[in-house]
Amino acid sequence: MDRPDGRTEGAGPFTTRVTWRLTGGGSAVWESRAARKRGALTIRAAAADAAETVHRADGAVLRRLRRLNLVAAVAFTIGGALFAAGAAVAQAGSGTPTQVASVYFAGGLCFNTGGYASLLQAVNAPRRGGAAEPLVARGWRWWSYEPLRIDWLSTFLLFVGTLVFGINLLDSFLQGLSAQQVNRLIWTPDLVGCLLFLASGHLAMVEVCHGRPGLRPHDLGWWIVAVNQLGSVLFLVSALAAFTRPETGSLVNVDIANWGTFAGALCFSAGGIAQLFEKP
Question: Are residues 45 and 64 in the same domain?
Fold first, then answer.
């Protein structure tokens, strides 16, 4: 009978990797990100020099995962590019505030799409059965509530963060606001969205590292998470610099606000492009 060999890994209440010993020798390894992104379960032979084999979910499940991955990757790539364009226009002063807000808003809609597609990928990810069994998928669902799954919680926080950014971007169209109103209606949602992105990225890093965050330079998933987390940090720096001083009505540092948004957006575009290759 197959049984866990004691190497259940993760952090806190979250399990990110489980290893089974097989009766015929060798082991089977389930990883939450590999199952969600690639529909894969790895089988390792007993011989040290033997190649690993991969059990995958059925074809319909893999096609579903591939489509969701494509939607999320393209959405974040385009959304990041639009945010970078908006920041560049704002820094150059070549567009009106409404034009800049329109570019940001279009990018925000792309981020909403990418965030929800990422959540759907976690909701509909195939689940582990036994070690020698293929991954098992449930019927299609548009929503679930599974806060004890690290992939669900990470993508949920990401999606909520994109929605909060949407409030910030909608409020950016308002005219004639006082400094206090700007900080309450525009800056505060921006800051909250950045913090949600950071929390989501931290959980994603814990998932890909199976516990304490660390360096995994040979893992594409790690690079995607790391680049996106760098983008979240840059967005936070930009948000802090975009606070409006009530006494003067000016930003703390408009250059840092624009360049931080520009660089952070490019990180998300780069992560989106890399995500195109992390598929079944």
Answer: no
Q: Domain check: are 102 and 29 in the same one?
A: no
Residue pair 198/228 in contact by the 8 Å Cβ criterion: no
Tokens 């489980």, located at residue: 18
Q: Nearest Cα to 229, choosing from 218, 217, 213, 243?
A: 213
| Domain membership flag for residue 37 | yes
Residue 51's domain comprises 3-56
Q: Are 219 and 247 in the same domain?
A: yes
Place of tokens 């759907």: 120
Q: Are residues 48 and 180 in the same domain?
A: no
Average pLDDT, the chain: 90
Tell me the two tokens of residue 105: 């808003």
Q: How many domains does the chain divide into?
A: 2
Query: H-type helices in the chain, by residue range?
Result: 32-38, 59-92, 97-123, 150-171, 179-182, 188-209, 220-241, 254-275
pLDDT tens digit sequence for 80-107: 999 999 999 999 988 899 999 999 999 9
Domain contains 280: no
Q: What distance in Å separates the CA atoms of residue 160 and residue 173, rounded to the nearest whole number?
A: 21
pTM: 0.92
The Cα 110–Cα 143 span in angstroms is: 19
**Residues 118 and 105 placed together within one structural domain of the fold:** yes
Q: Which tens digit of pLDDT belongs to each residue from 201-218?
A: 999 999 999 998 899 999
Side-chain half-sphere exposure of 230, counting CA atoms within 13 A: 13
